[in-house]
Amino acid sequence: MASIFTKIVNGEIPSAKVYEDDLTLAFLDINPASRGHTLVICKPELPSLLDLPPDLLAATTRTTQLVARALMAALEPDGFNILQNNGSAAGQVVFHYHVHIIPRWHSDRVLTPWRPGSASPSDLRDTAALIAAQVSKE
């Protein structure tokens, strides 16, 4: 079954479009965290960052930057968050790759997707070594 985003791409569900090209689409989130909260999606229905080929990831990133610049000029927020979730444990609800651009103003309530913790230098070194070993296999 097609995701809600694929239905938007196909014109089956309306959206407040901000930008569209051959590979990407940007539209306002219907449940915004703030005024102007925009979603940037790749048009092919791929579930996560790990599923995108490099050219499609680059196209989605270019659109994210383009729309973020336009959003900053149009709404003049004090900043913005870029949020991208992969997997249900990370908060992903629609399994179609997308990036959130969330305008922020100094008067906003704090939006934090995690609580900062702490780690010892040895834990950091050990974890970095595990990840680096896998990076070298890619």
UniProtKB/TrEMBL annotation:
Residues 4-111 form the HIT domain. The active site is at residue 98. One of its GO terms (biological process) is purine ribonucleotide metabolic process. SUPFAM superfamilies: HIT-like. A motif (Histidine triad motif) lies at residues 96-100. GO terms for molecular function: adenylylsulfatase activity. InterPro entries: HINT, Histidine_triad_CS, Histidine_triad_HIT, HIT-like, HIT-like_sf. This is Protein hit. The lineage of its organism: Bacteria, Bacillati, Chloroflexota, Chloroflexia, Chloroflexales.
